[in-house]
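This follows on from our talk about sequence and fold. Go ahead and set the record down below:
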Amino acid sequence: MNRIIVNDASCLIDLRKGGLLTVLCELPYQLVVPLPVRASEILDFSDDQWRLLDRSGLITYDLPGPEVAQALALRQRRPALSPNDCFCFVTALVHSGILLTGDAPLRRFATENGMQVHGVLWVIDELEANRVCPTPLLTHALRTWQSDDAVFLPENEISARLESIGAQE
């Protein structure tokens, strides 16, 4: 069975900005989004975008009561984490999944707890390594993120990937 990747809102937003939602589900992973994150107004995905992701295999995970309680207890212990951060953490924990997030406090907490954590630049690496995304689309995503003041990615990491991709063209 494929490894599970639990997606938080920040990564989904950046992947949409980069035009990568259509290829995201081509990776050899089971993509999961906790229901509270999916319902979050911050995502502002259209019904068509959700249908595309659903048809491509994205699973919306409705946390059962004990897991909701676990997330809420975590939120009380770690006020730097948002409720949705806690839902993502608990979902990744119970599924032994990879957490995909760009949120610094969540990344730090998950790493401290031995969880595998990645961000959207790792997705670029995986899309390239698995050859499921055309190079022009990867380049477009990286350049979009590079020029977007609301996307907080290390410039040197973006440049390194652009150079790597360019060397293969």
